Structures are given as C-alpha cells and as structure tokens.
Sequence to fold (613 residues):
Amino acid sequence: MTFSAKLKNNTFTVRENCDIEIEITPNLNLNAGDKIEIIPPNSWLLVYGPSYTRELQTQDSLAPHFIKLKSASENATFDISIIPRNQYYEQGVSRHGRRITAILKTGKVDAGEMLTFSYRNTFAPYITDQSEFYINIKVNKILSETKTIIATLPGPVVFSRIIVPSGARPGDEFPVRIVTFDRYENCSSSEFRNQTLYDNNGKVIADKLNFTGSIVVPAKIDCEGVFRFSMNDTVSNAVKISRDTPIPYWGNIHIHTKFSHDGQGENLYPYARDVAGLDFAAATDHWESLGDAGYNSLKYWAEDAYEPGKFATLPADERNPSHWPGHHNIYFRDMKCFMENKVHLSDDSKVVPEESWPKYDPERVMLIPHHTGIAFGNLPKNGVGAAIGLDSYDDEGLIPSVEIYSHHGQSELYNPQHALAYEFNRMRNPERRANTSVPGPYYAQNYWMQGRKFGVIASSDEHSGQGGRRHGGIAAVFADALSREGIFDAIRNRKSYATTGERILIEFNINNASLGEILEVPKNETVEISIKVWGSDILLRVEILRYRFGLDNAFLPILSATPQPESMDAEYSIEETITHNSIYYARVTQEPINWPAMAWTTPIWVNLATLSR
Fold:
C-alpha cells in the first residue's frame, strides 16, 4: 500500500507554544487490528537538555503533550500506546525516543479518507532544526513507511559575538565573523542595517554592513601586534599578527546529535564552522544508539565538511569499556580506522564488553575521559558515581589528555563550592540540572600528582548538535596543520589548553619549554616562568600553580594576580629555583563574574637532570 503524510504547519519558531497536526491519507481500507505508528524526532520530545523528556499522554486534551488520532468521518476508534523507541536504530538505547502506536479498534477507515494525528499543547525545540517525523502504516502485516519534515526557525537577537582567528601573518586576509544570537544561542533572525566594524585603534574596517543573523567581513593588518574588533558594544577576541608565533586552532570535539539517545540536532558541522566559528569539531554520539544508519551519517557529515586548511573533522564516538570506570570519547586519526572499529549493541549493556575491546594502536586511536569526578544527581551509596580513578588501571597508552571542562562543569580539582562545579554549572542553563562532585582522586590535579603526563582540553558535551556555544567549553590546539591528522597528533602530543568557551589567548613558557613539554634542569638551577594573556573580557585573575613531587601535598599558586588597572591583557614573569621534580600550569579567570570564563593550560613538567658518569 501507499499513503501520504503532510504536516498542516511545518514551520515554527524556537520554543513557540504550538499544536502539530499530521494529515495521513492511506490508499487502502483500514480495518480492525491495522495500525499506524508515529515516531517523532528527539528534538520534539525532550524538554531543554538531555535529561528530561516530555510526558506524552492521551487522556486530557487540555493538558500538556496530548496525543490523538481521528478519522475524518469519525467512524473509527483507536487504542493508542506510547513506548520508548530509538528513532534511527530500533535495537538501540532510547531515553527521549517514543513510538506512538494507534491500533484500529472499531469501525474502519476507507481508502482516501484522511486521518489526523494531533500533538497538542506542546512547544517547539530550542534549537533551529529540520527534523523528521516517521510515519508507518501496517495493513495485513504489510508495512509502508514515509516521513515528513518539520522545521524550527530562530528567534530575535539577544546578544552578539565577534569571532576572529587567534593569529594571522602581516598582510594576510582573515575572516571577522559577526554573529547575532537569539536567547537559545541560535544564529538570530534579526536584520541589521548600516553597521560599522572598527579595530581597537578606532579605524573603520567596514561600514554600511547589512545582514540578517550573521556576516563574515574580510580583514587584514599589515603590522605585527595584537588587535581586536568592535561593533556597537561587542568586542572580539584577540588576534595576534605575527610572522612566527605559534597560534592555536579552536575546536569542540564532544558534541552529540539526534543519533544519541539523549541528544537532538542534525548535522553539527555547519553550526560549529559557520556560527561558532570553530576550526575543528567532532561528533561523539553514544555508540549504543548509533547502528549502521548512525555510523554512516556520522561518516557522511564528517567527510562532507572536512576541508584541510580551513576546517577539520575528527571521526569519533562515545564508548565506555566495561573494564574502565566513567565516560570516555574515542577518536580516530582517519576515517578508515573509525569505520573498521564501529561497535553495535549486542545486549542491554551500555558499556563495551572487555572481550570486544581490541588492542588499539595509540598512534591512530585515543581516548579522552570527561566529567571525571561527577555523580549524576546525588552521590550514590558506593560514593563513586561516574568518577574515574585513573590510578586503578592501565590506560594502555591511549589517553593523552583529559577533558577538564564541559557544560557539566570543571574537572580540575574537587571543589563542590567552585563557581563552575558540577553542582552549579548546569543550573544556569534552562535545563537546570544539578549534579554532585565526588571527593577523591578523580580530577586533573590528582592525575598529575599521580605522575600521569596528561594534557587538557575542553569541549561542551553539548546534546543539541550545536557545539561552540558560550560557556560550553572549547579546546585550543597548537597543530602544525589544520587537518584531521594535525589536530589528532597535536592533542596526542599535549599541545593544547582549555577554556570554558571564550577564545582566551595564552602564551605560557618555562625557559624555552612550552605546553606539554618536559624540561630538564640541574638541581638548584633558576628558571624563568612567563605568561602572557589576551582575554576576550576583563581579566579577573591570572595564576600559575606548582606541585613538587616528594615535598608538596597539593598544587599551590606561586602567582595569583589581578591586573590593575583593569585590563583584558596581562603579562607576568617570575623566577623559580628548582629543587624537586615539579609540575607547573596556568589558570585564567575573566568576566563575567557571575558565570566566569576560565582557561587552564596543559602543564609543563620540570625534572631534575640526571647526571651522566
């Protein structure tokens, strides 16, 4: 059989209160026992973030999320059931996914008679989206399927960002990206006329700018120095114009989409590249929700967006081996390795069984643990939650870095009163989800004190397909090339630092050693430790922290300074006499004070030189 399915209205504005009606017209008679199935997209089933699902119901037409199916003649009645169901992978795990099944109970539906499926008293997603309602009809055990597209459009502007690369050579053209955002950080629907873009010297870079939502303005600066751009009250991050200074690329490599059981959103790369202005990104959908359809889509999206030198995509997913605690993302240096090692759900387990966890090559595969000290909700009886004690297992050379920040909060150290603690960070989002920090050796500082030489990155763990949102978390990576291999290798080599989402430019060195390096010096030698910071807002504090093996019980600041007068820029230099093997890293905090932007560098290790005979 065939049938048509059409949305009466297929376009809505983000978070608009609305009713959905799908008009379904079969070309055969439907009789008792025949069934109609509707499988909505996750974006129309979750509330705000990944935690809470809308409660669909069939009893009260005036209550939220009311579901009904009726025939035009009203000569048929239906029994309606609602059960969990992953939209794309029937065997996969489902949190938000639902299958609505209407079985014809009495009467009949004549061929050509319209059925109307209603989803009333609900609201549109908070992300701009084009997603699919799946509709199936089963008559005499013959199944026919179709789908219909529903779109969500952005709202008006609430705030703006000006995003520039962190570096360029004198005379080279680079993009200045002006993006206006609605309340939910979608590129806004607002129109702008006769706007003027300035540099920090008051020079007009471009005027009479007319655009809706966003615009990219080409710019170039002929002399060396650090520059920012402004339009109205919005100021950009800093761009350093230099002939030879290494400059980081910015990316988010922890983003979930509609293929995760707790996610939503389509292809993530256009938002990451064109709205957030990132240089690289990765989808890390949950392996137990993917199936072949998911893996094939992740491959297509990544290959389609990959443009070496302009935008890089890393093949990845989130998978958690049963023999290791907590949550990890797995990244592959090339697409071939990713597709050869995809995994499928074979039972109800949400972890990859130890026996199916192969011996990966650390040159082509890396694992990065995230929210390493978290307990979801309250602290469980075992006192561990999803915390990751890396002192308890061998990472087999696969873990080069730790995700020190995401939208969940900071994983630098145990401090449940920290402004960015798991207890508070998600409470600032519309979702308002509070979690718990687990006391114990589950944080970056603990790993370093255990002797682990890990770098740090940040990424959002965003479940909307929109990585690069403010306060979500991004990584600064010093790669030799903006390519899949270049970004992968730089993270493996600890050439990275982390921020909460702002492009805070940092140069941190000890003598000639930079991030991730091991400097060897004779005992009692004095070294120079220097830091330069160019923030994207007023700097609140610049710190350098130190830990000495065999002497200290914790990391302590050897520099903790507030720039005076207030400034977006800071530069400090101090001297230290090295008496023990030591670790140094930098931490930066900037405005806004109610939800501070922060940055953490990968450490520099300073070891006492071994005397040769």
Notes: The first strand starts at residue 3 and ends at 7.
